[in-house]
Amino acid sequence: MSEWYKSFGNEGDIVVSTRIRIARNIKKIPFPARMTAEHINEVNAIMKKAAANIPEDICGKLMVIDMNSVSDEEAGAMIERHIISPEFAHHRENKLLLISSDESVSIMVCEEDHIRIQVILPGLSLETAYEIADKIDDALSKEVEYAYLDQFGYLTQCPTNLGTGLRASVMLHLPVTSNNGTLSVISESASKFGLTVRGLYGEGSKSSAALYQLSNQITLGISEKAALDNLKSITMQIIKKENLDRAAINKITLEDNVMRAYGILKYQRILSSEEMMQLISRIKLGASMGIIDIDKTLPMRLLVECQPFMLQKLNGLMSPDDRDICRAKIVREHLE
Amino acid sequence: MSEWYKSFGNEGDIVVSTRIRIARNIKKIPFPARMTAEHINEVNAIMKKAAANIPEDICGKLMVIDMNSVSDEEAGAMIERHIISPEFAHHRENKLLLISSDESVSIMVCEEDHIRIQVILPGLSLETAYEIADKIDDALSKEVEYAYLDQFGYLTQCPTNLGTGLRASVMLHLPVTSNNGTLSVISESASKFGLTVRGLYGEGSKSSAALYQLSNQITLGISEKAALDNLKSITMQIIKKENLDRAAINKITLEDNVMRAYGILKYQRILSSEEMMQLISRIKLGASMGIIDIDKTLPMRLLVECQPFMLQKLNGLMSPDDRDICRAKIVREHLE
Question: Cβ–Cβ contacts within 10 Å for residue B274, how many?
Fold first, then answer.
């Protein structure tokens, strides 16, 4: 197994990745907002021990990373790989991260909740991702007494996670529906089913790369299975709509759009992160529709590996100007 | 010899072509603005006979084209090749065009003046072009009595051509000075020397392809030699300035600009005439500066042969949308 962005999963032409996050807290220890340094140390100690006892057949051995030892650049690169949240990166003093070697499983300790189990897999893989997260949850529950009330379910710092503590999401590549103005319609229908759509790798709700995250918002009064089924059903409808919209585009206009992006990426010498995302989105669409013959894993791999921090993690620290030149070179080399 | 736009002449990195035009009128026949149909027939008869007597060692045998027989498309393609003026194309009833087989020499009969001798050669070639035009003028003067007054020189319909009747011009590719805002400075200095700069292949004074025509404006009280020397001297100064400006551009920015244009041209599927010119200008600069290794005659050849009428002359009549697709294909094929 390799990292999610290096693989092409089920429905990978549209579904880039699936993520499951489960929030848990430990009984009798205050929520993170009210924790003292001693509380953090206590939770860290509990989690170190617990992590060591998670059966290795679930996700291998979890590596324990002391977030104090992580540089700003490495933390930034973790955010870009979707392993940790920006909040966790920005307040990482005395925090622990538990992570599997393929990075598909990560557990943030003392982020918004004491325990945040995350499983991320390539493509549409809600059942498998949930199954792994659930097994880890079960294993941890044998080591740790969770804060739980029959009346509500699992207790969380923020009431929006109360109940299942589950957030399931899929990252969708929607270059056509996001361009023809129908994404807002999708977004509105999704919200009626308790789901939300938001842009990824971009400002606010816009996404430079036409990548959107669809996730469940309701955690109270709904079973995990119902939440997952609901998310999957809407995902399948969005896939169908994006595919219909793709089939309806004028062929030569689409080819022109894809081939221009390909031509620019093959020959440019200076490439900003923002422009890279726009162009990669176009060649991902082109690869999906058989217009260009490139490795289908390449677009997402380049998109993640050419983010500012990932680029520096893989190629050394650089000034912003040098990054744009390095990014240009790497993209050219991969398209040769 | 082939057409001017298919060859790379002296100083061809910057000077695309040289044009000489000599205006002459026949004594005792009214200027074109006041000619009757009989007068036109009379001039046509005189010119047919005179053309047949021009020594063939000057420019081969001149073909006589009855402009009544020329379609709108063919006339448009002649304008795009700079063989005739738009005015001549638009009012071509009963007009004659005399033209050499390589199209370097053309004589418009009854355009603004009875006789407009034009010589167009690739690159900077003022002396040679003038020499050819002068020989044709001499040969015609043996057949035709020119309207001439010692006090003024050759008489022309418009007083701006009175005297020598000579307009000499060079077509310059100035992608850098036209982009860095210094072209207006050049233009102002040129006007002090009786020269004018105007954009070609573009709206008004702008040129999509960064092609500018520098020409003399003064025909009275100045010898042909002085006018040509003056034009050549200013041309050499502009070449020097454009070259200095080219050398001063940031190397990677320039490469990026050139290679992106190259990448788009190699892969696009829909290409408007306007965008083609902008991109061709960038690859011409790239070829001049050794950034891309293409045949140096290719940019101007594509630029002329992909103009709307030339494209149809070479590839058949098409709708505007189909032209953009055909243009895209031809450009791709030439860059393969």
Answer: 13
Same-domain pairing of A111 and A162: yes
Q: How far is B260 from chain A (nearest CA, A)?
A: 5
Instruction: Give bridge partners of residue A211 from the DSSP assignment.
Output: A173
**What confidence tier does A202 reach under pLDDT thresholds 50, 70, 90?**
low
> Based on the number of CB atoms within 10 Å of its own CB, is B163 exposed (0-12), middle (13-18) or buried (19 or more)?
buried
A26 with A143, same domain? yes
Q: Residue A118 belongs to what domain range?
A: 15-245
Same domain, A197 and A291: no
Give the residue from A204, A226, A245 where a domain finishes: A245
Report d(CA A137, CA A50) in Å as an integer.
11
At CB < 8 Å, which residues of chain B contact A? Answer: 252-253, 255-256, 259-260, 262-270, 325, 328
Question: Both B188 and B262 in a single domain?
Answer: no
| Distance of alpha carbon A58 from alpha carbon A68, whole angstroms | 27
How far apart are the CA of B271 and the nearest CA of chain A, in angstroms? 9
In a shared domain, residues A295 and A237: no
pLDDT, one tens digit per residue, over A265-309 is: 999 999 999 999 999 999 999 999 999 999 999 999 999 999 999
| Overall number of domains in chain A | 2
**pLDDT confidence bin for A92, thresholds 50/70/90:** very high
For residues A198 and A102, membership in a common domain is answered with yes
According to DSSP, the residues that pair with B211 across neighbouring strands are: B173
pLDDT in tens, A257-267: 999 999 999 99
Residue A94 in tokens: 């005395």
